[in-house]
Design the sequence.
């Protein structure tokens, strides 16, 4: 683990103190983990951005240095202003290298589906991460899912994916990762046709026909009244 982030212990707390920290180009942080007291820190914003923009992103392992201590850590959670997207706070979790941890790993789709290339469908990429359990050294950068053989309405579920070496997939095995959908218009036509078939099968008349019959019956009644 060669990446070392220099931190400073934080003595002042509260919203005003945090604003002062952020104006200085630093981010309030908390370091925690099993068997240790929480440590309030501040980190250089540039260091955090360099981690987040790396290939491993939030799953990057690094060493945080403060005072005379160095702790193995990774980003656990980020707090971001929903309006300005400003980074407000970061939670760091201390990592024990010989203890299994659970992390979310990004999914990368590989290939062009037959259902898209030859059948006019599109890719519905619904689950973009998979949770895995593994030792810190075995955290994969990403997990590849080959979709090249998928036709319209075919999908890939989590239980169909081979786990990375040294890792165990813990996400819901029934969850669908990707589905090759038909264009919306085609689906709407199919649904309408199915509804019409069901109505006719039940011996019901379409609403338009019912309306016409009602008008005819009304005219007949008016004619009888005149007679």
Sequence:
């Amino acid at each position: 683990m060669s990446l070392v982030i220099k931190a400073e212990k934080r003595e002042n707390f509260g919203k005003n103190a945090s604003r002062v920290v952020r104006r200085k180009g630093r981010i309030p942080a908390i370091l925690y983990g099993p068997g240790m007291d929480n440590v309030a820190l501040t980190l250089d914003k540039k260091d955090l951005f360099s981690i987040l923009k790396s290939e491993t992103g939030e799953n990057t392992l690094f060493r945080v240095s403060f005072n005379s201590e160095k702790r193995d850590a990774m980003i656990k959670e980020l707090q971001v202003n929903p309006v300005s997207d400003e980074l407000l706070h970061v939670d760091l979790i201390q990592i024990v290298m010989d203890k299994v941890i659970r992390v979310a790993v990004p999914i990368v789709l590989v290939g062009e589906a037959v259902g898209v290339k030859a059948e006019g469908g599109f890719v519905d990429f619904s689950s973009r991460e998979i949770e895995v359990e593994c030792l810190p050294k075995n955290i994969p950068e990403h997990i590849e899912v080959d979709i090249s053989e998928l036709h319209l309405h075919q999908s890939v579920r989590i239980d169909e994916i081979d786990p990375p070496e040294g890792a165990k997939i813990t996400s819901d095995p029934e969850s669908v990762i990707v589905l090759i959908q038909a264009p919306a218009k085609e689906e709407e036509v199919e649904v309408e046709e199915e509804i019409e078939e069901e109505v006719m099968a039940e011996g019901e008349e379409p609403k338009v026909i019912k309306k016409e019959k009602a008008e005819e019956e009304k005219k007949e009644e008016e004619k009888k009244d005149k007679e």
